[in-house]
Specification:
With 216 residues, the chain is of the alpha/beta class. The protein has a single domain, classed as Rossmann fold, CATH 3.40.50. Strands 2-3-1-4-5 form a 5-stranded parallel beta sheet, with helices on both faces. Helix 1 packs across helix 10, helix 2 packs across helix 3 and helix 2 packs across helix 5. The protein is globular.
């Protein structure tokens, strides 16, 4: 892919941290946001090669009679067995990166000024951070995160905690991020923090920093 004339900023964080809320704030500031997680959800439903690979590795029963992926069942398997999670990621990550690169290539140059945002849960785990110009880590206390996911997805707390344990520890991701946002409060408070970070990023990327747009 030809070099893009804009930088890329990654937004990541553990389950329940509030990545989507952060990205809503960026969108309100006029930034283009691409969601790797949304793309992955779509591809596991619509991409024949991905569907076939998941069915082959985890069983045909992972797809219901309506053709939809039984996400809760698959999640229980992979978050209980790290090796199976790695298999799933090896199926999904390459096609997600390809789809993201295609989406970036279709963006007009002015859509990414002064930067565009990529939201992904596994930025550090997948190595995506090596090809981003900055990373924003969204953090919140574990009890807050568990309560959010239980409320949002109607999952037992034990299942939520198992998913957390399968992700990079929040402390480690915070150390690796360029910016860390405390998202333990209200979204109104979050918007103020994002506005500040947006101002800093805009300044960073208007002094000539070269973008590195590929995600593989």
């Amino acid at each position: 892919m030809p070099n893009r004339p804009f930088p890329l900023v990654g937004v990541t964080g553990g389950i329940g941290s509030g990545k989507s809320a952060v990205c809503r704030c960026f969108k309100r500031l006029g930034r283009v946001v691409l969601s790797a997680d949304s793309i992955a959800r779509d591809l596991t439903e619509t991409n024949p090669a991905v569907r076939d690979a998941i069915a082959r590795e985890f069983g045909q029963e992972m797809y219901g009679p309506d053709g939809g992926l039984r996400r809760s069942e698959l999640a229980r398997i992979v978050f209980a067995h790290p090796a199976k999670l790695r298999v799933l990621n090896s199926i999904v990550h390459p096609v997600v990166f390809s789809a993201l690169n295609d989406a970036l290539a279709r963006l007009p140059a002015d859509a990414g000024r002064p930067y565009a945002v990529v939201e992904a849960a596994l930025i550090f785990e997948s190595g995506m951070d090596r090809n981003l110009d900055a990373t924003v880590v969204v953090a919140a206390p574990e009890d807050v995160r568990v309560a959010r996911v239980v409320r949002r997805d109607s999952l037992p707390p034990a299942d939520v905690i198992a998913r957390m344990r399968a992700q990079i520890p929040s402390g480690e991701s915070s150390e690796r991020g360029d910016f860390v946002i405390d998202n333990s409060g209200a979204e109104e408070d979050l918007a103020v923090r994002i506005k500040f970070i947006d101002t800093v990023l805009a300044l960073m990327f208007t002094v000539g920093k070269k973008a590195r747009p590929r995600l593989d």
